[in-house]
Design goal:
globular; about 35% helix; about 325 residues; single chain; alpha+beta; two-stranded antiparallel sheet; 10 helices
Length: about 325
């Protein structure tokens, strides 16, 4: 992978997936650290985004802390799979959508402002596709989306704070909505963000820093695309673990090299009995398979691995729709 990227590109890809500086001129500070000018850093990130190596520079919000989200699956008839995948991907609430090798062959993540809205989204997908949707909400993270180490074992490890769920107020919703697509790659990105929601640069910086401190944002930085970086084998590895053992086994598996995500989800009986999930990424199936076999031995349980065969959609979660700025009505007129 290193040969495909310049030293500056690799430094930005691997070193700044988290701990991104939340300051007025973050790219200038990054440049001082990696040995490049602010203009070169911005140009390099723009080029990486254009190549698809990164999806955005911005926030990854903590699941179960803001809005509502779920992993979902459906069994699409093979002669309709492409049509159904397009329908599912077209919904703005869907941010990931993959075909996987299983009877349940379409797997997607959906997010919404709250549980009622999420329920309506899933019901609408059922109505549009004629397929029953399994909803598999997250119950506990053991290791989840803390970065993707391109040098060794594919992971950055850090403790996940147990942040309580809370309802963002209107101002917070507007800022979250504007931040969802990522920062604009300009010299003062937080000032540009503030312009979109009628906030000062300092207020945006204060709020984003506060969200990081409280765990509402679990990391802020470069969000990479695994497939474009050469990790083309993507397996969702699932186990049916006795409820009394799932936390112990989940913590053990989450610490294993090669495991990029590990979490417990609600079963959907009788169709789907699995409650523990590990994501394994490799450059090939041959690289991923020994990791999967090792996880099965450590768990002491039968293992089911669902490799992805096509990615239909991958983008950041959309919890809230970007609406009028603070002090405006839906028509754009300032309230008197």
């Amino acid at each position: 992978m290193d040969a495909l990227y310049s030293p500056l590109e690799f430094a930005l890809l691997n070193g700044w997936q988290r701990d991104f500086p939340i300051i007025a001129r973050p790219f200038d500070q990054l440049g001082g650290i990696v040995g490049a000018g602010e203009t070169a850093v911005i140009a390099t990130l723009s080029r990486l985004q254009g190549r698809g190596a990164i999806s955005r520079v911005g926030a990854v919000f903590a699941p179960r802390r803001v809005g509502a989200s779920t992993l979902a699956a459906l069994a699409a008839p093979l002669d309709r799979l492409e049509e159904i995948a397009v329908r599912v991907s077209a919904r703005q609430e869907v941010n990931h959508n993959y075909r996987r090798e299983h009877h349940y062959n379409l797997w997607f993540v959906a997010t919404a402002a709250d549980q009622d809205a999420l329920t309506q989204v899933l019901a609408a997908i059922e109505g549009e596709t004629g397929c029953v949707v399994l909803s598999l909400p997250l119950e506990q993270e053991y290791h989840i989306d803390l970065g993707f180490d391109l040098k060794s074992a594919h992971k950055h490890y850090a403790r996940i704070p147990d942040t309580p769920v809370r309802e963002p107020d209107l101002v917070e919703r507007q800022l979250i909505a504007a931040l969802q697509p990522g920062l604009e790659l300009v010299a003062r990105p937080f000032a540009r963000l503030g312009e979109r929601v009628a906030m000062s640069e300092s207020e945006v910086l204060t709020r984003v820093t506060g969200w990081l401190d409280e765990g509402l944002i679990k990391r802020f930085g470069v969000v990479v695309r695994h497939h474009e970086l050469g990790y083309r084998a993507n397996a969702m590895v699932v186990f049916d673990v006795p409820d009394a053992e799932v936390d112990r086994i989940g913590r053990a598996l989450s610490a294993e090299a090669g495991v990029t995500l590990c979490y417990r989800r609600t079963r959907s009986l009788p169709h789907w009995p699995y409650n523990l999930y590990c994501m394994v990424h490799g450059r090939s199936r041959e690289e991923a398979q020994p990791v999967i076999e090792r996880l099965g031995r450590l768990a002491g349980l039968p293992v089911q691995a669902l490799f992805s065969t096509r990615r239909y959609k991958q983008c950041g979660a959309r919890y809230f729709a970007e609406g009028p700025s603070r002090g405006e009505t839906a028509t754009g007129l300032v309230n008197a």
